[in-house]
Amino acid sequence: MSKLGLIVKREYLAKVRNKSFVVMTFLSPILMVGMVVLIAYLTKINDSETHIVSVLNDSRYFHGDFLPGESVSFIEFTDIALEEAKDSTLALQYDGLLHIPKSNNLEDASQAAFLYTKDNPTSQVLNRLEAIFENRLRKNRLENLGVSSKEFASIEKEYELRTATFKGERNLKGINEIKAFIGGGFGYLIMMFIIIYGGFVMRSVIEEKTTRIIEVIISSVKPFQLMLGKILGTSLAGVTQFAIWIFSASLLLFVALLLFDIDMAALGGQAAISPSGMEGLPSIPEGDDYIQKYVNELFKIPWLLLLFSFVIYFVLGYLIYSSIYAAIGAAVDNETDTQQFIFPIILPLMLAIYVGFFSVFSNPHGPIAVGFSLFPLTSPIVMLMRLPGGIGEGGVPLWQLLLSILLLIITFLAIVWLAAKIYRVGILMYGKKPSYKELYKWLKY
Amino acid sequence: MTPILVAENVSKSFGEHTALSNVSLDIPKNCIYGLLGPNGAGKTTLIRIINQITYPDTGQVFFDGEPLAPKHIATIGYLPEERGLYKSMKVGEQALYLAQLKGLSKVEAKKRLKYWFERLEIGDWWNKKIQELSKGMAQKIQFIVTVLHQPKLLIFDEPFSGFDPINANRIKDEILELKKQGTSIIFSTHRMESVEELCEYITLIHKSHKILEGKLSDIKKAHKNNVFKVGLQVNGQGEGILKELQERFRILNHVFDPKEKQLDFTLKLPSGDTTEALAHLATRANINHFEETIPTANDIFIQTVKAKGE
Questions:
Q1: Sheet of B209-215: strands edge to edge?
Q2: pLDDT tens, residue by residue, A298-308
Q3: Which residue of B has its CA nearest to A222?
Q4: Do the Cβ atoms of A220 and B97 come within 8 Å?
């Protein structure tokens, strides 16, 4: 076996045999799925709680308007005094008492209506009641203007602008967001991978420095071989872990969904924490036809291109960042000294994610999105968010994709070269707390 | 016989700091060669250059007659001063890994490790983790890993640090045994008594320059300064004898013990010729002892460094 192979194997085994690594590998999916299930479950409980409001209606109006709804239902009191009604409401532990006093017309009755509650009323109850009054008042006012309720219903139709590309493809509302979200999922995956396993690489370098094994090893192999072997071994361990996570998390999620009878749609809102980040579709208007169009659109996403680019951006992006992490590990003597160097690394990653979510979602081909998808330190994340739109017309222009990859490759070579230099000097330096100035000097050794 | 290692005008600097300046060395085969010098003199840099961890800015290094190349790494064994092992790795696994990095096959490495583990009586450590071992125990593993691939040239940097006297002796014997088998050894240390004991040749590096090189016995001869230690048995008139002697010879320091009637002093003669002095002393008193003081490696080290330092 070649020396590089030996190093990769050792780093891989050292990582996957590590107890905390094993624990994390098997615990994380359980925690993750547990959290999703818990949130879904809590949301469900929260939603299924119904508020009961008693109604004391002394007016002639609103009879038949207080219909039980999803979260609020009503009990009507008749022929009792207000004080009595209040007592009963409290005694029966209802959420509130709505009193509509005697009045000659609807407007006055609405004005005089009053809600008594023990504590502050929940927004659900208030919204519901206000909606009832609003509807009734609107109807009444329109009737006064001579519009019948049938005519009113016909006015109320929502309007949606239909759009299409010049090629005649029908556009769908929100499809850009969905596509960016899918790309964003890949980008997010890259970021998580870099932060977790880049950190592992760094710690492993620091360990070699503090145990002083480094000089023993580099009298046998080149520092660059050791750095590369470490990065590769750690990332293989990372890929193993991620594969186990994704597989077991989806299995667990599937089982949990069956067991707890949780509606997938209820999870929609929690997309950000769900493992794959794919379910965060914006609310889809009802209608099978409509859904079918979305499904068609999803099939039209160039998955092959996306996966292929994912691999390219993942490999290059990870290698760039993890060699920086390795250089940092080599430069310092212990982990507490790493802070000043870590922040500048995390910054472009965070920037990529936030710019991606705020700017690329709304306009995947705007100047900011283009800029960040070309800039090598952010392109692995931002370009992936743009790519689900395809390349060529209506998507990412081919030159941008190629330029972005080219810039990334150049940066990769430059950064690895620089990092290897810092690494080579740093691993043999003990007891120095390096500054940026010091690191710059090392480059010239 | 070609020397195992030749360095020709090797210089190396880090930024503005010069670590080695025009250092040339000839290290003969099958000897123990002491590489001496104060801290920060440039010894470690030189050793790292030999190990191809760093490269000289100018100058050349030859290994067994050939220009030093990556293929020689497998024929050099290096025990660095700053040494350690992976804490959470098992002893056997770790030794195998390091041996394989030196180019041994797994089977061969295992066979030799078995031999060495038994030789140093640590056979039952194979499955222990390094963090369970004491420092001295870990040093033994380090030593084994260094010599396992039967290198032609061994470089030991402070090999005895971390060992108790018994094990230090054990390792010393192993080093001598390796020399007997034909290995060339570079030995870097601050412990002068072991230099005295082991080294045939020494080189002294100070402030990046080589300031002394040669056979230890020759160097010692060259550093002899005709100083003699004398002990006289005197009968009561010690003060008088001393006074008289002080007029005739250069007496460096003296101790007179009237109770024991013993006068001890050191004497510096203008040349190595002792007959006249001895004849004279013999007429004055009983000579208890008369011996030449040969400078120790320690003396030579301090003397030479001090002389150069000013």
A1: B76-79, B153-157, B184-188, B32-36, B201-206, B209-215
A2: 777 788 888 88
A3: B53
A4: no
